[in-house]
Amino acid sequence: MTRHIDRVFFWTDSKCVIGWIRSTAIWYEPFVAHRASEIQTLTDPKSWRHVPGRLNVSDCATRSRFDERSELIPVRWFTGPDFLYQGEDNSPKEMPAEELQQHEEIKPSKIFVAKFNPERVPVYADVDLERFSSLSKAQRVAAQVHRFFSVFKGKKPESSACANVNEKHSATSSNPWKERNVSTKRSKLLPFTPYLDENNVTRVGGRLERAQLPYEVRHPILLPQKHRLTELIVGSYHRFEKHGGTDHVLAAIRQKFWIIRGRQEVKSFKRKCAQCKKERAKPGSQLLSELPIERITAMQPAFYHTSVDYFGPIEVKLTRNTKAKRYGALFTCMTTRCVHLEVDETLSTPDFLQALHKMMARRGEPRSIYSDNGTNFVGAVSELKSMMVRELNHSEELQTRLARIGEGITRKFQPPATLTGEEYTKV
């Protein structure tokens, strides 16, 4: 059987929901506005009524209490509330008109209140250490800031940056541990048994309390790794110790400070020090020129291309009371690096020609002979250089004698360059 439904009523125990449905949806937040707009589209806002919570059947599913004296499932869950069977006059009364007035959403305003704690600010916090390149500059500025607090506030502020009363010393006695949470059980400070002294400075504890040492040596100030104050202190000691080694600088620092991983901090600063970089710099290596063709020509007999040089003098004993000087003539093959030695009594030209005769008699006639014509001779060998330059370059008689010794021998004098004559200088 079909029945015609004239009106539809929706019941809810939330007055806020009824207010949202009967108001303009765009007044509210997106989450509420989207759902209120959908309800206003599908239903008539005036068909929504308010039911008190004690008569709301839906609460049986969410707020029912099950015990031995109550029903497992209330009967009204199936039958509905009683006022539905008693006519519209017995329905819950409509909400008052003042509660149904449409109002925009009243959003709570947020007021931020800054609470100032009049705590003494340490001098360390007033000085930006990143703006200073040396510890002495930071000390001077810290002393001026300290003096400012002393004059305008009547007394010095309580500062964890002070290790003693001296104002200029306060910058070096800063307590950067205040910036870090190091009071946990996993802190790296625990092996040092740290404590705060009377100036609120973190110091190393240990077992040296009864040692006959100064207080700062027994309990040095504890400093963190990779901190600007630590870097300034390391730089100050590094320069004071004349850019000494890592162990030397670290030993000087530990007379007053103990830095976590201090060796790494000293090494890191030493690598960045400009003067230390200059001292560690290595000289540049010279770019070698190409080898002459005589050095790399294959399938040639030994001493086909020969270079000659003198070495000495060598003191020899002729008799029991007689000593003399002898010089060595060194002939080396430029291709195979074979060596032939002859002994000359003097550096004269006849002795050189005699040595050349002996070499050619045993090794064969060379195709070319190279000799040094530069300034590589020192001491007694300077006489050979003067003679060779004077005789071989300007004496036609000597050139003729050389031509008789070996017809077709080409003599070449090497220029005074660094890498020339390395065939015999290395020998």
UniProtKB/TrEMBL annotation:
<dbReference type="InterPro" id="IPR041588">
    <property type="entry name" value="Integrase_H2C2"/>
</dbReference>
<dbReference type="InterPro" id="IPR036397">
    <property type="entry name" value="RNaseH_sf"/>
</dbReference>
<protein>
    <submittedName>
        <fullName>Uncharacterized protein</fullName>
    </submittedName>
</protein>
<dbReference type="GO" id="GO:0003676">
    <property type="term" value="F:nucleic acid binding"/>
</dbReference>
<dbReference type="InterPro" id="IPR012337">
    <property type="entry name" value="RNaseH-like_sf"/>
</dbReference>
<dbReference type="Pfam" id="PF17921">
    <property type="entry name" value="Integrase_H2C2"/>
</dbReference>
